[in-house]
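Quick review question:
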């Protein structure tokens, strides 16, 4: 058995929530970077392209849409609705078909 002392933790406090950092983002419309023609449901349709960092917390958006960020792209199909929670996660819920 080895015994000894453990140095104090160097963990930092948790960062601010996404909600607290996003005071300047007020509406979902401000997050739209452009619209594009995208093929859903057997036809092309104009869908909003949201820039991920601009999505305001707790405001709903619905598919079809596309959410872009520097490391990924999320395609939200027509029957889904979503919102960004207080920590910046995109939360999606399937609607009725």
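Suggested answer, residue by residue:
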């Amino acid at each position: 058995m080895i015994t000894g002392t453990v140095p104090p933790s160097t963990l930092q406090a948790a960062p601010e929530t996404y909600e607290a950092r996003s005071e300047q983002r007020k509406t979902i419309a401000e997050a739209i970077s452009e619209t594009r023609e995208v093929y859903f449901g057997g036809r092309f349709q104009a869908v909003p392209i949201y820039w991920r960092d601009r999505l305001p917390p707790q405001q709903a958006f619905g598919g079809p849409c596309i959410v872009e960020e520097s490391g990924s792209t999320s395609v939200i199909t027509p029957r889904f609705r979503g919102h960004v929670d207080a920590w910046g996660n995109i939360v999606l819920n399937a609607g009725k078909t």
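Why it works: The longest strand covers residues 32-40. The two ends are 62 Å apart (CA to CA).
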